[in-house]
Amino acid sequence: MTDHTANLFSIATGSSEPIYRQLVEQVRRLAAAGQLKPGDGMPSVREIASSLALNPMTVSKAYSLLEMDGVLARRRGLGMVVANFAPARPADRVELLRPALERAALEARQLELEPDTVLTLFETILKEAK
Amino acid sequence: MNAPLVQMSSVTKHFGARQVLDRLDWQVAPGQVIGLLGRNGAGKSTLLECMLGLREVDGGTVSMFGEDAAALSDGARARIGYVPQKSDLFDWLTPLQMLEYFEAMYPRWNKGKVEGLLSRWGFDPYKRNSPIKKLSGGEQQRLSIIRALAHDPDLLILDEPVSALDPVGRRDFLRELVDQVIERGTTVVFSTHILSDLERVAFDLAFLKDGRIALQGQLDALLEGARRVVAAPHALPAGRLQGELRRSYEGALTSVIVQADYEQLAQLAGKPGVRIETLSLEDLFIEMTREG
Amino acid sequence: MNASAWQDYRRIWTATTTWRDPRQVEWIGRIALFLALAAGMARLAGVLERDRFWHMEVFVLVGWFAIVWMIYFLPASVLMNSAPNAWLVPRQRRRLRQMAMASWLFMTLGATLAFGTWAAFPLLAIYTLGVMLQRAGIRSAAVLVLLATIWPFLSTHLPSALVHAIVGQRGLVLESAALGLAAMWSLARLYPAGGDRHLDGRKRVVAGLARFDRRGAGAGVRPAPSPISRFAYLPALQRDCRCGKAEALLMHALGPAGHWSVWIPGAAIVLLIALVMALLTSNGPSQGFVDAMDIAMSTATVMAVVSTAHFAQQLGRTRGEQALLRLTPLAGNTALLNRRLAAGMIKSALISWGMVTALVLLLAWAAGADAARLLRQLGLGCLGGQLAATWLLGDFARRLPSYAWWRFPVLASQAGANLAAAWCLARLGGSIWAWLVPVSVIGAAALLSWSRRRMLAAPPAFPVTRMEGSVEKGGQ
Known about the structure:
By secondary structure, chain B is an alpha/beta fold. Chain B is built from 11 helices and 14 strands. Chain B is 35% helix and 29% strand.
């Protein structure tokens, strides 16, 4: 059961994704990848805000969302901890790919490509990556 | 206590023939952290000066802490911290002397905070005892900030407070702002060009254009909600789009900035030849403050 | 007055007296103490009678206070009263106004006491008010000071009825009351409280104060261009740009203040005062005018020295511009820069001096002055020219000519030497003033030629004082 520090996070300014959303996505990704195990302690809002120079309200907004989604849970006296969740099934994990795939789909549509062509290309790339 | 801390109604101000503020309405609620954005010369400094009562307004009213800004009581003044763009800081005194002087003038003074800031921001004993005019621009600016924070103000107004600081200095300043100021619930209004700083620290934004607050709202909502729709004119529905903020024409294409309406966007996204782009804060700034 | 008010005053006082080197405050204090003790000793020795003794003590006390006030408190307090500070720092502005008013009263009443007669009050009030305002950077207050200083001279020339009315009992009471109100009003103006005029005029105020601070309030502070510059300086600038002559263009590094047109407002004021005196004087208008021209010439002598000091100050302020000029082809190689600059400065100084002297002489002649009078004025003018030439040129890379008050003995001894020489020559025939002319001209030429040679051998002048503190090579 590790206690994580604010070093867990990195945010990028200048993107079109608001910072709270970046934090949420990072936590989801880390949890899905198994780097955040159930019961691990999360850094406090104050710690994150101070370390990354963020408005605490932004951080607590991200935490509230994650709590609502069940990724994190609030334990009295311990602050935020990673919730007990079943290890992400492939079906859940693949959902994380959705934003990237949606972007690719948009581009494909702009280039006026047929779905089959695109899927073939994607398969090729996946096989290359192995 | 949700009465606005600062209330500006119908404020007008001109310099000669030039209209700088034009029937501007603005409110700042307690605890808000607002970033004020605008082009160079748009009047951000003038707006802040009018807000504080430093400049007389030609029309409209400004009130701070419920009092008329033109006649602030000593108590109200003690609750305000101001970092002007150009620091004028008794430059013949040393930092310690200057801080001691101001300590005597204010009822509240947080010596621990001052000491902490001085040591964290690199003011070693040598610098603390050299006349301020010998310090670099960045150091003078940091000192100006320390002085404004030292008396634990309830309202902190910053006018380009970090223009002379390097990236490390800026990050340190933001950290202190978060720790010492925002955590305490101080209301902060600051105008800056450095958008990345605003993204980190501000929760609300206000754009000053043509003498009025052209757009304001929560930073996250503005970013998430804003989209740029680029298409050939015939691909777009006739008339204004829902939540349209501005429309411009670039060659054969029309570019429209809209505040999101997901249904409408989903419809448009389906059409061929229509591109929907997300905007970064910089894009939003450029679009919102462009002439025309 | 409660304790915190006194604490405020003390803090403000301490903050302002470190505005310049605090050792100077201590020195002034020591000198004052010394004088006070000396008077005490003289009293004990019976040399000084009681009344005079007390007057002397009051005089020393008030004098000390006035000097510290003028040199330290005023400029510093005006600087402290920036718009944000005036508006947002609780109580500061109120205290500043209270202190200014109290000190003015103290100085004026104290001086009146030292003079021993109530009739001196209005005069002293105007004088102290003028000096205070001038020191705080308000240029037009010089009129007040001038008025007060020439009063003794003026009163002997005014119709006696008018003079009696002014210094009579009722007159004094009225004037005192009026002056009290005027002081309150103008001192409050010294410390504005925010507002457009305060914010926008701030630069001008800081520039006005910088004129008194030798080290300058930073290189960026410039006196605002006067409207005169539009008519005289700018056309000259355009013309010089077209002709492309190096000396003239280099001199533009000094800005409008280095141009002869800077004399015009001063000349206009002198003319105005002379006209007023001519009208008011009881000796007959033309005689009064000639008297005024006498004063004008004496003033011009001093002004010549002041203007050289002014050049030096301008050089000190325009280092940025000088650095840029140094990089242009105009600067030539190192020796050429100094040669051109020397030529330019001599030319500019000569034109200024020549104009003023000629103007005064012309006006005096037109008003009917006799040859002896004119010669005296010419003699004084030439003497002034020589004094001004003393430090006009030099090794600017190392130090700027400084016309600080402690250098005045040098100038005084020069003047003395000239007068002595003229007096000796006058034994041979001719008046002392007539001889003063060639003596001063030769003296000025010698000084200029010697300092020019030094300047040519020195490193390039621009940017000035960059080598401050480095040792000069050779025995110069």
